[in-house]
Amino acid sequence: MPSRVVDVERVYDHPGAEPGFRVFVDRLWPRGLRKDSFHYDEWAKDLAPSTELRRWYSHDVAEFAEFRSRYLAELESADGRSAVERVLTLARDRPLVLLTATQDVEHSHAVVLREFLEESA
């Protein structure tokens, strides 16, 4: 059973300042949104998949299992672990909300990251 609950929200759906530590986890800023369009506490680009992995995956659902495996390997790296620890420390005892601009949340890095964070907390 996970020791921490992590929510995932699209930046287009919940722009307000709901309770919790809100972390934007995309490497690129969402098109069409100003920097003040939604509330976030931290922009953790280093928790997003590498540019190479993101380009390779290109949101091809047929490749999601392989994408997940490769992304988990990135999160398990020293840099990935460091980024995870930093966000968990910043969030402390607050609820954690991952923000993403992706359209298909269920086949995105955000859900993989949520599972990883829930298991790491």
TrEMBL record:
It comes from the Bacteria. InterPro entries: YeaO-like (IPR052552). Pfam families: DUF488-N3i. This is DUF488 family protein. It comes from Rhodococcus spongiicola.
